[in-house]
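Reviewer 2 asked us to include a model.

Predict the structure of this chain.
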Amino acid sequence: MDAETPDPSATSDATELRAQFGDVGPLAARKVLDHLDAYARRFIALSPFVVVASADAAGNVDASPRGDAPGFAAVPDPRTLVIPDRRGNNRIDTFVNLLDSPGLGLIFLVPGINETLRVNGTAAMTRDPALLEPLAAEGKVPAAGLVVQVREAFFHCGKAMIRAGLWDPARHVARSTFPSLGRILAEQTAAAEVADAEASIAEAYQTWLY
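Predicted model (structure tokens):
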């Protein structure tokens, strides 16, 4: 069954859908806060990695990784987050999406902790030096950042991470078992030779992190 073929077992009615899955437990139902409490702020201070999800005006969704040293995302107040935009590939998918649709979803991860922190709200790009200068890394101030106005914040249980064994070294994949990004992009795009693409990416990893 392809994506355009309706699934006869699916439903478009929220009440019927809820009946199929059962009631939400009281902890899950009441855990959503409208701000970042002390636990959420502590988790963000420990987190070196966040996934940022945004969508354009047509509802086309994009998810993008952001990462740096633990605490790279700032929390100026309980309802505001600032995430620096480090040097990347200049696709700026998130920033473009926010021009049409300001909604944003975040998932913060902390290595070694199975639970994650989910934050939903609205966001916009900032180039305000007062916000960005405190987020400098390796002596370089980010050229831009995301300012997120928090609407929801809640912790997500660790069942998915436990099933995945994400932090289990025994499940880590040897890098040599999967093709390099340079090879993949060269073969997918035909825009460069494999050796040239690999050299370009290696240089970016060495000199373009900040």
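The mean pLDDT is 94. DSSP finds eight helices and seven strands in the chain. We have added this to the supplementary material.
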